[in-house]
Amino acid sequence: MDSQQSIALLMSGLVFLLICFLSIGVYQYVLWKQNKKKMLARTKQSTSRGDNPGDKTAEQEQQGGIFAGILRLLSLFGAKTTPVKSIDHSAMRLKFLRAGIRRPNAVFVFYGCKTLLVVLLPALYLLLEARLHLGVASTWNMAFCVFSAFVGYYFPDFWLAMRISERKERILLGFPDALDLLVVCSEAGIGLDASIYRVAEELRFSNKDISDEFRLVNFEMRSGKSRQEALNNLSRRVDLEEVKSFIGLMNQTFQFGTSVSNALRVYSDTFRTNRRQKAEEIAAKLPTKLLFPCILFIFPALFVVILGPAMIQVYQTFLK
Hints:
single chain, 320 residues, flat, mainly alpha
């Protein structure tokens, strides 16, 4: 009877949490629709100027409602429980910039999530074990608690690494289009600064990651930084070999005073040639990679289908 009551209480708690999450989801969806309408109206009104991507995060933080409150609590929790040195803070800040997260309190929110998960996951396991009366030995309980704390501590790192990898892949896929647009703008007589801004505006909806990075470059140059420094910051934020080689080519072009449009066209052709060669290399490796699955899975099934009836007939013949 006690186990049935505990299961009923657990189910009622889960239903209550489900209703709360659904309510929060509906509320966030309504806010998202309203913000989307405001963003579309603002982009239609301001086609000749760009907005700072850093200002977007601040505005979203003000309009986020419950989500913004949770982030502020996590930020305070992370700042109190996990003090971060300046060097570590800079390295983590760079990781968040590579992931496309530009909130000023992102590092403290990250460490707050890690600390909260380390405490919350073992507590949830112990609560479920006490409610369901699983009868697990104390040694295994300790092992499960340590394992859940380990998962809770490293899960944010895994999530951040996955987000950085996905963003790099999106930037790499959209970078040839950005290069082609830069070539067209430079050959049309537009300066490099205006070309970067124009490409950022054109790619705002097709590739938001490249658009945000190019807009940041434009804002840095407009705020007083040199062109080389702004491009080097782009290279550090993106952390792709293709982008680093492009920035190196641009710096050499500025240093020696050669034509920017010719350098962009040559690099664009070279970049597309390298991508085609990589695709051909991957295609050439496919037969070798398919050999082991064929040997392990396909060939045994073929042998069974082809030789199976013959072996059955031979067996029946020897029995007679």
